[in-house]
Design a protein that fits this description.
single chain, seven-stranded parallel beta sheet, 12% strand, globular
Length: 283
């Protein structure tokens, strides 16, 4: 019986966790297909041993082309790292529905569809790893991040369901729950505030401004010491996909471990009170 393909397909490799994971796995001897919407953004990864591909998780044809390319060369995608994603910030009422749909299209719908596309060949070879980049934000919610948290809560449910459905085919599903990771993610989250809707005499103006400032401060201020660089996540991913029985969930960074534990112990009212000390409550 032939060995199963262990080729790795990673989404969102232009920056941060995706780039660090592509570099680490390629240097460790894995066959890595690094992807991004703009191939020129990852051209340099080829020199590190990765194979760059164009892939936009919001485009069906793009996803099909990428998966077909890997399957034609390797037989199957052996490891799928669903990393592409971003955070849309802003009070629920102020974020335009177009932006809400784009958030879910990137963070959830594209992830689900790409997973569907790789599974037939992965099932056929009876081996595979699906690594979903979740967040501690899938276990709790901060004010001003409702749409982003909704996608990460959804990913928790999807990962739980897939883990049961796929285990019998030899496929493991691994959900990562990072806390603060010092990448461009924080800047992008703050920048997403520019897309929110302004109201006449905007009742959320002070709140949305505070959300942007708190988000940026978490990445620039003392909280960053409870975080880690993207290389930490890349290391966790490599260890997990090498294990015969990888864990279902992995919390990454002290910020994730502490915050998730604290939230579990607090009532909803106590959590809300704690949030009021960080954010001005609209009203």
């Amino acid at each position: 019986m032939s060995e199963p393909s262990k080729a790795v397909l990673i989404t969102g490799c232009s920056t941060g966790i995706g780039r660090a994971t592509a570099l680490r796995l390629a240097s460790s001897g894995w066959t890595v297909y690094a992807t991004a919407r703009r191939p020129e953004a990852i051209a340099d990864l080829e020199r590190a041993g990765a194979r760059p591909l164009a892939l936009d998780v919001t485009d069906e044809a793009s996803m099909r082309r990428a998966v077909d390319t890997v399957e034609q060369a390797e037989g199957a995608v052996g490891v799928l790292v669903n990393n592409a994603g971003y955070s849309q910030s802003g009070a629920i009422e102020t974020v335009p529905m177009e932006a809400v749909r784009r958030q879910f299209e990137t963070n959830i719908f594209g992830l689900v569809r790409l997973t569907q596309l790789v599974l037939p060949k992965m099932r056929a070879q009876r081996w595979g790893r699906i690594v979903n980049l979740g967040s501690m934000g899938g276990r709790l919610s901060f004010p001003g991040g409702g749409h982003y948290h909704a996608t990460k809560h959804a990913l928790e449910a999807l990962s739980d369901a897939m883990r049961f459905e796929l285990r019998g085919f030899g496929i493991d599903v691994i959900l990562l729950e990072p806390g603060l990771i010092t990448t461009e993610f924080g800047e992008a989250a703050s920048a997403s505030m520019t897309g929110v809707t302004s109201f006449p005499d905007d009742p959320y103006a002070q709140f949305n401004a505070a959300v942007g400032a708190v988000t940026k401060g978490a990445y620039d201020g003392p909280m960053r010491h409870l975080g880690a660089g993207p290389e930490r996540v890349a290391k966790v991913i490599e260890r997990a996909i090498r294990r015969r029985r990888p864990p279902a969930r992995i919390k990454i960074t002290p910020s994730a471990k502490v915050t998730i534990a604290v939230r579990r112990l607090m009532s909803d009212r106590a959590w809300d009170a704690a949030m009021r000390r960080q954010f001005p409550q609209p009203g």
